[in-house]
UniProtKB/TrEMBL annotation:
InterPro entries hit by this protein: Cyt_P450, Cyt_P450_CS, Cyt_P450_E_grp-I, Cyt_P450_sf, Cytochrome_P450_monoxygenase
Family: Belongs to the cytochrome P450 family.
Cofactor: heme
Positions of heme binding: 406
Gene Ontology terms, MF aspect: heme binding; iron ion binding; monooxygenase activity; oxidoreductase activity, acting on paired donors, with incorporation or reduction of molecular oxygen
PROSITE patterns: CYTOCHROME_P450
Secretion signal, residue range per the UniProt entry: none
Keyword set includes Ligase: no
The keyword Iron belongs to this UniProt entry's keyword annotation: yes
Protein name (database record): Cytochrome P450
Organism placement in taxonomy: Bacteria, Bacillati, Actinomycetota, Actinomycetes, Kitasatosporales
Keywords: Heme, Iron, Metal-binding, Monooxygenase, Oxidoreductase
Length: 460
């Protein structure tokens, strides 16, 4: 029987300022502000600048919201910087155009395709680990970014980009800082014609990214390799760019060159930025949880027996997958989901005025003590099949949900689990500082660099 949705009874949130609304409080500390909204009630009204907003915290309301986003809501084009970066990709389109693009992009990351990339994921991890030595120290997020960037370049473009990789990575880092600048302050609601220094830097970074995307697409259309290395699928044309170029809609039309470019940038940005951040937080949590790390050691030794992990091992690495799931609960890279209600939207039996921006936050729901016992504690065992606590559906939604859920969710979870297993076979990573605070931008990152000391494992 379907579960009846809890009634929606909005309560007023904190009083805002004229024109700015609650933007100053939100920008000062977004996670703390959203947590206060959650604690005020399951549905709270507030305002981000002039936007009339409704913040949801109950899993049933979130399930209803995410499940009906395809037709009942418009995309919130929040911020100038994000639109400059990803253009009119599936991330920011709506209606018939979104359905067309989604239908063409989604098949590129179906489970069968993701499984083909497992070897690329593991090989990229082993290439990095092969250069580590006992006692080495490095910036953990930077090292994870190098690995995931290599993976996404090989799976997306079928090759490495050689010297161009660093420039592309630096441009993406600049773009990410621009997105963070907007989210945290007044630039979020300033018109795009206002000249601000970060906007000039952002346009330069986007120009670098777009030029490289165009070069790769033009080379692929011309039948050239377009890069500096061997294809991720042994020259079989199985990379995501090839599939984007070959995709056709129901009328037999391909994506235009600009549409391919926008989707490639989106897949590249999402494909390494979110996973590298998730891995960074995972090693941080494992460093502080010796029992969980010991159980990980036992599992990789037992399941893998000293050989590299493969796609076939993914389902058998049960504890490893639970570590990933718990890390995504505590530090979900994507931390906020907004959409704009159209005419006739109903939530929890209550009509939502058209134009209202509806929000929910992975961070606040994942750390709600009503759904998770000891929510501030890293406990992968809460995801055991026989765990006593029942976790409501949509109390965990790091990849969103419904028709607009992340199309790369399977890719990201497999990538994280296989990379963790490949590293854990050989090393422990002891991470400082002992207590890390998050910083919000395009994803939730550590506020300061996390420095990892490499410790070689003693294996039986």
């Amino acid at each position: 029987m379907p579960v009846e949705t809890a009634p929606l009874r909005p309560v007023p949130g904190p009083r805002g300022l004229p024109w700015l609304g609650n933007l100053p409080a939100f920008g000062k500390d977004p996670l703390a502000f959203l947590t206060r909204l959650r604690d005020a009630g399951d549905a709270v009204t507030w305002s981000l600048g002039p936007r009339r907003s409704l913040f949801l915290s109950h899993p049933q309301h979130i399930a209803e919201f995410l499940g009906s986003r395809g037709g009942a809501y418009d995309v919130l084009r929040i911020g100038w910087a994000m639109h400059q970066l990803v253009g009119e990709s599936v991330l920011l389109t709506a209606g018939a155009e979104w359905r067309r693009k989604r239908g063409m992009v989604q098949p590129t990351v179906r489970p069968r395709q993701v499984r083909r990339f497992a070897r690329t994921m593991v090989d990229s991890a082993l290439a990095a680990v092969g250069g580590w030595r006992d006692g080495d120290r490095f910036d953990l997020r930077r090292e994870m970014t190098l690995i995931t960037q290599r993976i996404v370049l090989r799976t997306l473009f079928g090759n490495d980009l050689g010297d161009r990789t660093q420039a592309l990575g630096e441009a993406m880092a600049t773009a990410e800082r621009a997105v963070a600048t907007e989210i945290r302050g007044l630039p979020l609601i300033l018109p795009p014609w206002v000249p601000l220094p970060y906007r000039r830097r952002h346009l330069g970074a986007v120009a670098t990214i777009d030029a490289e995307m165009r070069r790769l697409i033009d080379a692929r259309r011309a039948g050239a390799d377009g890069g500096d290395g061997a294809g991720a699928d042994g020259g079989q044309g199985g990379d995501l760019l090839t599939r984007l170029l070959a995709a056709r809609d129901e009328e037999g039309r391909p994506l235009s060159a600009k549409e391919v470019q926008d989707e490639a940038v989106t897949l590249w940005a999402a494909g390494h930025e979110t996973t590298s951040t998730a891995l960074t937080w995972t090693w941080y949590l494992l460093s502080r949880s010796p029992e969980a790390r010991a159980r990980l050691d036992d599992e990789v030794d037992r399941v893998l027996g000293g050989r590299p992990p493969t796609e076939e091992d993914y389902e058998r690495l049960v504890w490893t997958r639970q570590i990933v799931k718990e890390s995504l609960r505590m530090y979900p890279p994507v931390w906020l989901v907004p959409a704009v209600a159209k005419e006739g939207v109903v939530l929890g039996g209550r009509a939502i005025p058209a134009g209202t921006t509806v929000w929910c936050s992975q961070w606040t729901v994942h750390r709600d003590p009503r759904w998770f016992r000891d929510p501030q504690v890293f406990r992968p065992e809460r995801w055991d099949a026989d765990a006593p606590d029942v976790i409501p559906e949509h109390a965990w939604f790091p990849f969103g949900g419904g028709s607009r859920g992340c199309i790369g969710a399977r890719f990201a979870q497999m990538e994280a689990a296989l990379l963790i297993a490949a590293v854990a076979q050989r090393f422990h990573l002891d991470v400082t500082p002992k207590e890390a605070t998050p910083r919000m931008g395009m994803v939730i990152q550590p506020a300061v660099p996390l420095i990892a000391t490499v410790r070689a494992r003693s294996r039986p």
